[in-house]
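call fold(seq) -> tokens
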Amino acid sequence: MENDEKKPVSPRKKRKITPERLKNVALYYLERFDSSADNLRRVLNRRVFDHARENPDFDRRQAEAWIEDIIAGFERVGYLDDARYAEAKISAYLAAGKPERWIRQKMKQKGVQDEVTEEILSATEIDEEKAAENFARKKKIGPFRKSGEERNACRQKDLAAMVRAGFGYETAKNIIGGEFFDESI
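ret:
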């Protein structure tokens, strides 16, 4: 065993992008994650961009047309449905105690139409106070801090955390200024 020298491993060359390859990438992505049409478009465009960077003669415009055909086909057969995606995500976010403002922004980032988000949110009862209370409990801020002295010292910091999370100032002020909560009882 004199020749135990390892040969240098070259990085695996990326496969050529074809319509069939893009469709397989999209199907594999949708097996693992639910997605909006716009989000899937971003994922596929990122793959095309990486391939085009390594292969300058690759036609990105043609690949973008392939992506649009794939997305249209997936919407026709029901693999992609922005309303279904938004409904599932919004219900999960509400269960997690996320504020309405945060949910709207997240849906916009994922490419869901404002009208779809508005329709789902208007049909859902949202209790901002309860969500803010859950957030404060989870982060152990405001009335959920260990002591009254610590609570008073961190009041501004706690208010800022609530507002950054997407709760309105009045809601945050009501929760942070609420009665002291002792979890040991």
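Residues 82-123 form one domain.
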